[in-house]
UniProtKB/TrEMBL annotation:
<keyword id="KW-0812">Transmembrane</keyword>
<keyword id="KW-1133">Transmembrane helix</keyword>
<dbReference type="GO" id="GO:0003841">
    <property type="term" value="F:1-acylglycerol-3-phosphate O-acyltransferase activity"/>
</dbReference>
<dbReference type="GO" id="GO:0016020">
    <property type="term" value="C:membrane"/>
</dbReference>
<feature type="domain" description="Phospholipid/glycerol acyltransferase">
    <location>
        <begin position="84"/>
        <end position="198"/>
    </location>
</feature>
<dbReference type="Pfam" id="PF01553">
    <property type="entry name" value="Acyltransferase"/>
</dbReference>
<keyword id="KW-0472">Membrane</keyword>
<keyword id="KW-0808">Transferase</keyword>
<dbReference type="GO" id="GO:0006629">
    <property type="term" value="P:lipid metabolic process"/>
</dbReference>
<feature type="compositionally biased region" description="Pro residues">
    <location>
        <begin position="293"/>
        <end position="303"/>
    </location>
</feature>
<feature type="transmembrane region" description="Helical">
    <location>
        <begin position="27"/>
        <end position="48"/>
    </location>
</feature>
<feature type="region of interest" description="Disordered">
    <location>
        <begin position="278"/>
        <end position="303"/>
    </location>
</feature>
<protein>
    <submittedName>
        <fullName>1-acyl-sn-glycerol-3-phosphate acyltransferase</fullName>
        <ecNumber>2.3.1.51</ecNumber>
    </submittedName>
</protein>
<keyword id="KW-0443">Lipid metabolism</keyword>
<keyword id="KW-0012">Acyltransferase</keyword>
<dbReference type="InterPro" id="IPR002123">
    <property type="entry name" value="Plipid/glycerol_acylTrfase"/>
</dbReference>
C-alpha cells in the first residue's frame, strides 16, 4: 500500500495525518483565492438581486472555488438549464462546487455539509436543501422545499446514495427525496449525472468517519490539481417511469452503465476501508436482474 493510500485509509478511520508546513501554506494560498473570489462575486451577486435580475455569480464563484480546491473540471454532455431534476452519484463536497459551476443548480445535500468550512455557507447561498438522514419526520418539509424550487423553474440536484463513496462503487438509491416527482411537475425532466474523479476518486472521497473539516484540510493541503469530469447523461421524461422507485432505478442504471464504461470493469462493493487493490465483481444476476453489491465487511486499517 502506498503512502497516499495509507493516509486515505487512516483519514477514513478518523485519524488524519499531520499537515506539514508546505501543506499549511497551500491551505492559506487556496483559502486566499477563495476569499478573493468572494470579495469580487458576493457584492455583484447582491447587486444583481437588488436589480431583480437573475444572478450568475453563485455559479461563477462555485466554478472558481472548484478550481481553487484543486479540481480541473471538464464537462461532458449538455446540462439542461431549467425544469430539470439532476440525479447524481456522490463522492465529496467538491461535487457541489463542480456541478453548480457547470449548471447553476440548487442542491439537496446531507446536513454535515452545512458545517464544512466555507462550503457550507456557499451551499446556503446556492439554495441548498439540507437533509438530516436520521430525521425522517422532516422529509415532508424537505419535499415542500423541493416542490417550491421546481415551481420556480430551478434546476435541482439530489444525491440519492445518501452518503459519499469512493468513485469505484455505487450504492442503492434512496427514494424519499424523489417523492417530489410523484407526480412529476409539468415540463420537468430527469437528467442523470456521473461524477468521475478517475484514479483520484478514493483519495478525494469523503468516506468513513473523517470529519468535514479534516477532509477539507486534507484536500486543500495536497500538492497539485486533479482532473474530474462531470458527465451530464441523456435526460428522460419521468412520466415514462411512473413512481419514484422506477425513476431511481432508471437513473441508477444509466449512471452505473456510464461508470462501468469509464472504469473499464464492473463496480466493486463499497466499504470505506476497502483498500484500492481489493476488487470484487458484483454478485451474479438472477433472472436477468443485477443484484446489489454486498459489502465484504470491514478490513482492519493498516497498522
Amino acid at each position: 500500500m502506498s503512502d497516499a493510500d495509507r493516509r486515505r485509509a487512516e483519514a477514513a478511520a478518523g485519524n488524519p495525518a499531520p499537515i506539514d508546513a508546505l501543506g499549511r501554506a497551500r491551505i492559506v494560498l487556496r483559502a486566499s483565492g477563495l476569499v478573493l473570489g468572494l470579495l469580487i462575486t458576493v457584492p455583484l451577486h447582491y447587486l444583481w438581486r437588488l436589480l431583480r435580475i437573475g444572478s450568475p455569480w453563485p455559479k461563477v464563484f462555485l466554478g472558481w472555488a472548484a478550481r481553487f480546491a484543486g479540481a480541473r473540471v471538464e464537462r461532458v454532455g449538455v446540462p439542461l438549464k431549467r425544469d430539470v431534476f439532476y440525479i447524481s452519484n456522490h463522492l465529496s463536497w467538491i461535487d457541489i462546487l463542480a456541478i453548480a459551476g457547470q449548471s447553476g443548480t440548487a442542491f439537496v445535500a446531507k446536513e454535515e455539509i452545512r458545517a464544512a468550512p466555507v462550503v457550507g455557507w456557499l451551499s446556503v447561498l446556492n439554495r441548498t436543501v439540507f437533509v438530516k438522514r436520521e430525521n425522517r419526520m422532516g422529509v415532508a418539509e424537505q419535499i415542500n422545499q423541493l416542490r417550491e424550487a421546481l415551481a420556480e423553474n430551478w434546476s435541482v440536484t439530489v444525491f440519492p446514495e445518501g452518503t459519499t463513496t469512493d468513485g469505484k462503487s455505487l450504492l442503492p438509491f434512496k427514494t424519499s427525496m424523489l417523492r417530489v416527482l410523484e407526480p412529476p411537475p409539468p415540463g420537468v425532466l430527469v437528467q442523470p449525472v456521473l461524477l468521475d474523479y478517475g484514479a483520484m476518486g478514493e483519495e478525494v472521497g469523503w468516506i468513513g468517519v473523517e470529519s468535514g473539516v479534516d477532509n477539507a484540510k486534507r484536500l486543500l493541503s495536497r500538492r497539485g490539481s486533479f482532473r474530474m469530469r462531470v458527465h451530464f447523461l441523456d435526460p428522460f421524461d419521468p412520466h415514462d417511469f411512473p413512481g419514484r422507485k422506477a425513476i431511481a432505478a432508471e437513473s441508477r442504471r444509466r449512471i452505473e452503465e456510464a461508470l462501468v464504461k469509464t472504469l473499464g470493469h464492473p463496480l466493486r462493493p463499497f466499504a470505506y476501508d476497502v483498500g484500492p487493490v481489493r476488487y470484487e465483481a458484483p454478485a451474479p444476476s438472477r433472472d436477468g436482474e443485477d443484484l446489489p453489491p454486498q459489502s465484504p465487511g470491514p478490513i482492519a486499517p493498516p497498522s
